[in-house]
Backbone:
């Protein structure tokens, strides 16, 4: 058996003998190595962190796409280097790395110490509200909260932070983790596990949380992958949205025009209410003056009635003690009273006309307020539209005040409508009383002209009785009228006070409408070019996130050229029980053909 194995080994040795490196020698001379070249260089930076995010180890796998085989040069402050392509020795002095590339793709590894990542990474853990170290979490149960924060590392080249997109991945065993919540991340199934992913955009710092209910806690490594955000971002097709924004802009302009018309209508309303208040003030003064003079009017009428009563009694007693001058004075008093009532009647008629005009202006102004109803949903949509909140609040308050004024007027409309007929009726009553007084005075005058006391005292007595009877009716009506005037004067004070409040309200409403129109004018001006503003914002956003013009540079050394890409692969330590902690397998060195051949016989 040993003989057969030795024979096979010797045969194999003879077969491969021409291929060993010494075959390159010719007459004891070695051909000098020529300079090689490469078209692109790629770097993948591998970094391990502890479970809290502190940096531990870092190495870089460098890949060259070879154009011409031969010696190539790279740079980096490596503590050690390792050929990952073949067994050719790599020369490493300070930051200069020389190697001989014989393949189309050449790889070597360089180990780094103290080289900072472009990001500061901090990971914290809270279990049932208590902050804990990672090693203290193993095997625990409860409510877990994991926070991951990434910030810019000022000690590193900022081009990576500004142009790289970072993806953070947590792989969670569904047998251990339940009720997983990640507000700013995405949660997906990965076989029997659940995978939580967060994304950090270029030039941004990240702050993320993951919460879950855990049982017998263990956690796999948290992985961070950072790659250049070099994809070109095209502006989205916003044709339909642009049309919508144009419609919104037009609608805002129409709202401004409508508010302008509303402001003008409210101004007319305020003017009408002011006229109404002035007319009401005159009516109040007149009716109050009439009420104040009512007692004197009734007393004067009572005196006339008593005088007539005494005259009638004197004539009836046959005493003949009749003073003709008293009757003449009574006639004059009646005519003066009639003239006074005529003046009051004219005042009431004039007041009725002014009140009618003011009431008509008020009615037109109130009816000019639109009757549309704005729902709470529409109001909320207006609040969320992005318009100036102060302007929106004024708009809502003005709308509510206008509707309140319209509703109040509707409630008191009948009372306002009843005032005109009441004034007309009062004026008619005064006119009738004045006419009756003139009639009585005429009768007295006629009686005095034709009266022959010596011939017929009986006729005088009959005339006085008739006059006394008619005047009694007049006096009773006068008392009822003055009572009504007193009652009207008392109740109209409240009406006048209400009109005063309405005047103040419409004045404030006009001021609010003016401010509202100023606000809607500003809103209409600022939204007049919404499509253009939207295009500008989108263009700015695309420019902010479009990194397609980014030219990658070496993470290791600025001396390195033709860098095609740089990627970062970062992992934290896992959190596991000691007995199950698996050591990371050592990277097996790439064996040469000769080593693999010798392994066949070992």
Residues:
């Amino acid at each position: 058996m040993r003989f057969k194995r030795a024979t096979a080994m010797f045969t194999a040795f003879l077969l491969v003998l021409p291929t060993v490196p010494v075959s390159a020698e010719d007459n004891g001379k070695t051909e000098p190595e020529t300079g090689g070249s490469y078209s692109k260089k790629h770097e993948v930076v591998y970094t391990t962190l502890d479970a809290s995010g502190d940096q531990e180890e870092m190495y870089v796998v460098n890949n060259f796409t070879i154009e011409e085989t031969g010696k190539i040069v790279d740079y980096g402050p490596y503590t050690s280097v390792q050929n990952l392509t073949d067994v050719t020795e790599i020369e490493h002095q300070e930051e200069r790395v020389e190697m001989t590339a014989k393949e189309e793709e050449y790889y070597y590894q360089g180990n780094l110490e103290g080289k900072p990542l472009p990001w500061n990474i901090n990971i914290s853990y809270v279990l049932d509200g208590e902050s804990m170290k990672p090693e203290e979490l193993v095997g625990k149960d409860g409510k877990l909260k994991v926070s991951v924060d990434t910030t810019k590392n000022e000690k590193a080249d900022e081009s990576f932070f500004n142009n790289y997109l970072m993806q953070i991945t947590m792989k969670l065993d569904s047998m251990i983790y339940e009720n997983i919540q990640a507000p700013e991340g995405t949660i997906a199934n990965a076989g029997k596990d659940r995978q939580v992913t967060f994304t950090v955009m270029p030039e941004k710092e990240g702050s993320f949380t993951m919460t879950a209910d855990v049982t017998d806690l263990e956690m796999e490594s948290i992985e961070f992958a950072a790659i250049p955000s070099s994809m070109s971002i095209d502006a989205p097709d916003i044709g339909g949205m642009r049309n919508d924004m144009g419609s919104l802009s037009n609608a805002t302009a129409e709202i401004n025009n409508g508010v302008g018309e509303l402001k003008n209508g409210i101004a007319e309303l305020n003017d009408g209410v002011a006229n109404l208040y002035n007319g009401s003030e005159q009516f109040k003064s007149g009716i109050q003056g009439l009420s104040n003079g009512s007692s004197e009017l009734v007393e004067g009428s009572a005196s006339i009635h008593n005088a007539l009563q005494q005259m009638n009694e004197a004539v009836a007693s046959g005493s003949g003690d009749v003073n003709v001058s008293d009757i003449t004075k009574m006639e004059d008093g009646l005519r003066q009273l009639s003239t006074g009532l005529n003046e009051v009647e004219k005042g009431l008629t004039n007041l009725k006309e002014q009140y009618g005009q003011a009431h008509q202006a008020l009615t037109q102004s109130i009816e000019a307020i639109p009757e549309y109803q704005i729902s709470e949903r529409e109001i909320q949509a207006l609040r969320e539209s992005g318009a100036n909140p102060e302007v929106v609040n004024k708009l809502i308050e003005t709308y509510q005040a206008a509707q309140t004024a319209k509703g109040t007027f509707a409630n008191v409309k009948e009372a306002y409508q009843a005032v005109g007929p009441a004034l007309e009726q009062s004026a008619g009553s005064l006119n009738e009383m004045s006419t009756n007084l003139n009639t009585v005075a005429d009768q007295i005058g006629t009686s005095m002209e034709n009266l022959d006391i010596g011939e017929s005292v009986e006729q005088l007595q009959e005339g006085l009785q008739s006059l006394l009877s008619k005047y009694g009716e007049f006096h009773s009506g006068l008392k009822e009228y003055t009572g009504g005037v007193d009652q009207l004067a008392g109740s109209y004070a409240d009406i006048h006070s209400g009109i005063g409040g309405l005047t103040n309200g419409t004045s404030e409403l006009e001021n609010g409408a003016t401010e509202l129109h100023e606000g809607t004018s500003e809103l209409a001006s600022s939204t007049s070019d919404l499509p253009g503003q939207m295009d500008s914002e989108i263009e700015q956003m695309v420019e902010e996130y479009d990194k397609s013009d980014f030219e990658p540079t070496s993470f290791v050394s600025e001396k390195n050229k033709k860098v095609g890409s740089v990627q970062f692969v970062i992992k934290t330590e896992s959190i596991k029980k000691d007995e199950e902690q698996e050591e990371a397998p050592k990277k097996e060195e790439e064996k040469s053909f000769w080593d693999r051949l010798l392994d066949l016989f070992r």
User: Anything to note?
Assistant: The radius of gyration is 54 Å. The longest helix spans residues 239-317.
